[in-house]
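TASK: fixed-backbone design
INPUT:
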């Protein structure tokens, strides 16, 4: 059954009670059953919805992991030079480990999305039936002068909302997966901090005020190698685990730009030991360049 068929059933049901009023429980049950059947047929099936979101999330996963090997190789070359190879390679996870963790995150996100779709579908249908029963049972015998179109639009409100939110859910879960994959990769490859980026400047983006305030703040990853070595200290913004993560909240599209090396940190986040380490490294690199 199509959306048009569902809308017609709603119009017919409203017209019937607007003209006749509430006369019996059996008549109300009959129309409620027709509405439920029409809504079930008009909504995308849970199976198809789950398949769509699985395809979408799988494409997000493929894009994120396709660049993983060359990206990891570049990080190994640059960061190992900055940290010292022995210290660095003790702290990073192997490529198979990272791939396995990221694959598990994809499976977890697909399962969670399927559950959300099912819950929202059931809530939408229940809300439509509850609104219909509440209105129809209150119409006195003989009908009501209230225009049927007004009540029809109210009954379609929740139904339209769930169809729209199914698409938004698909997009939102993609952002959540991408953010989680990026975080997994960053933690597994020795990132030390993250610069928060908000989309508050984007036109018509419904940003959160506290996320706007985080924009361009640098948040430290707790327990990272630079902290362990006494080379850096957290900024006033604090640690990544003290705030909600990018894309964690509904429809959030913020993201972290991860930092891996001391020279990418502002001077205020470097300890004296860290400043000395960078100065010594600069001298070594200048000497090497002069040879």
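OUTPUT:
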């Amino acid at each position: 059954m199509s959306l048009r068929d569902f809308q017609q059933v709603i119009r017919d049901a409203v017209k019937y009670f607007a003209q006749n009023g509430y006369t019996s429980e059996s008549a109300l049950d009959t129309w409620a059953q027709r509405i439920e059947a029409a809504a079930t047929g008009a909504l995308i099936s849970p199976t198809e919805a789950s398949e769509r979101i699985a395809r979408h999330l799988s494409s997000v996963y493929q894009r994120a992991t396709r660049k993983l090997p060359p990206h990891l190789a570049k990080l190994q070359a640059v960061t190992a030079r900055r940290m010292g190879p022995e210290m660095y390679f003790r702290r990073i996870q192997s490529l198979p480990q990272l791939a396995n963790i990221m694959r598990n995150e994809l499976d977890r996100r697909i399962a969670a999305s399927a559950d959300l779709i099912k819950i929202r579908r059931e809530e939408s249908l229940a809300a439509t039936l509850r609104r219909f029963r509440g209105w129809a049972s209150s119409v006195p015998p003989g009908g009501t002068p209230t225009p049927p179109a007004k009540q029809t639009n109210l009954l379609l409100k929740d139904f339209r909302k769930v169809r729209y939110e199914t698409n938004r859910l698909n997009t939102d879960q993609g952002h959540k997966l991408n953010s989680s994959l990026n975080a997994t990769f960053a933690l597994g490859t020795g990132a030390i901090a993250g610069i928060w980026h908000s989309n508050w400047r984007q036109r018509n983006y419904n940003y959160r005020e506290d996320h706007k305030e985080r924009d361009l703040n640098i948040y430290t990853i707790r327990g990272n190698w630079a902290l362990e070595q006494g080379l850096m200290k957290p900024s006033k913004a604090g640690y990544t685990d003290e705030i909600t993560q990018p894309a964690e909240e509904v429809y959030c599209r913020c993201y972290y730009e991860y930092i891996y090396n001391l020279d990418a940190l502002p001077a205020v986040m470097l300890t004296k030991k860290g400043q000395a380490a960078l100065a010594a490294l600069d001298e070594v690199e200048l000497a090497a360049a002069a040879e």
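COMMENT: The chain has two domains: 1-189, 191-291.
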